[in-house]
Specification:
This protein has about 450 residues and is α/β, with parallel strands linked by helices. It has helices spanning about 20-35, 50-65, 75-85, 120-130, 150-160, 185-190, 220-225, 255-265, 285-290, 305-315, 335-350, 355-360, 375-380, 385-395, 420-440, and strands at about 10-15, 40-45, 70-75, 90-95, 105-110, 140-145, 170-175, 195-200, 230-235, 240-245, 250, 275-280, 295-300, 320, 325-330, 365-375, 400-405, 410-420.
Amino acid sequence: MTSHFGTDGVRGVANTELTPELAMSLARAASAALLRSGGRVIIGRDSRTSGPMLEAALAAGFASAGIDVGLAGVIPTPAISFLIKDEGADFGAVLSASHNPPEDNGIKFFGRSGQKLSVEEEERVESALSSPPPPARRIGRIEPLDAAATRYAAFLTGTIESEDVDLSGLTLVVDCAFGATGPIAPRVFRHLGARVIELNTETDGTRINVDCGSTHLEAIRGAVLRQAADLGIAFDGDGDRVLFVSSQGQTIDGDHVIGIAALHRGRKGRLHPPLVVATVMSNFGLEQLLRAHGIDMIRTPVGDRHVAQAMIAHGARIGGEPSGHVIFSDHAPTGDGILTAVQLLEIAHDAGESVEILARGIPLYPQCQCNVRCPSAASARGVPLEEVALLADARLAGRGRVIIRPSGTQPMVRVFVEADEQALADAVCAEAAASIAARFAR
């Protein structure tokens, strides 16, 4: 962990912690550490009000280092992975704080492969920050990227392998969290024949992720039930994660998707090798189910970057997190919410079952999660969390597991408890959170 980079790039309150000056410095440092003058970078952003300001600073930083810049505008984060390869670019950058509130923003960097930078590459950028390079003799060009959203939408529909996929007769409620998927996701699903009811699809940076999207499912759950829809599809602000809501209002998360996809491909003889990659947060019930079908689960630390790297190391085709980051490596090197939804709908069509019925076949242990706010990220790392975790584990008495960790993106401690009964998970989670909060109060 470096001083600026967290588990998903650099994040902070825009214009306070993440300033234009820092954005420009990060661009110049990335250029010095990882690029050469004359290279090309693609920049995208979500709908946040601070996006154009930081985009201008980031583009100026790259151009001052002799790097040409293509501006993709408001577009989902995973689209940058696609555009890097489609354009033959050397690098990518996204201005987004993902599921964070509107006042935050962030910078994520992507290499030539379309993957997020490794920890080692981030450390090289961090080192270059402390000794900034002189301005390059060549000034890079800054130009808009032609038809970026249209090309990305065509890529998404092109990932469907079945020739007869037709979603006509299917009603979908699509919540885009006032973020980057709004101009693209509804049109992709309509192209496939579905009836789409749009929810929060305006690109409004003042409302991004506010009581909507994949982190606040109450709005889409209500809409699905009112409209008697077949499925709700909820993205986060930058579109790299997605959660689903069944016609009965139940949540279908990333673990369900991983299980559905792995079992379907396994039955079709298309899961080689027979394994998936998940994180320590993925449900033990999923692991047991997959093992019963001869499919191994490899666990990584939290973060889709860790999942992606382990997938490459083990040759895995499917991986992800319960939060809705799911990677289908046959099609993309990083988590992609719209792609995940397209793949899931294709599987349901091929299986002749609804997504809801398929999800019921993935039995998961009850879980409880809560966040404990702290004064700063540094203070979160200073609390003896191991002691709290040991006490919680003793309380579970072998009936579950607990994970307590500092957030990599926000000043808080995340508490996760999984148990064979919901009441036990809730009680242990509440006790652990109260213990942590008491320690901060001292």
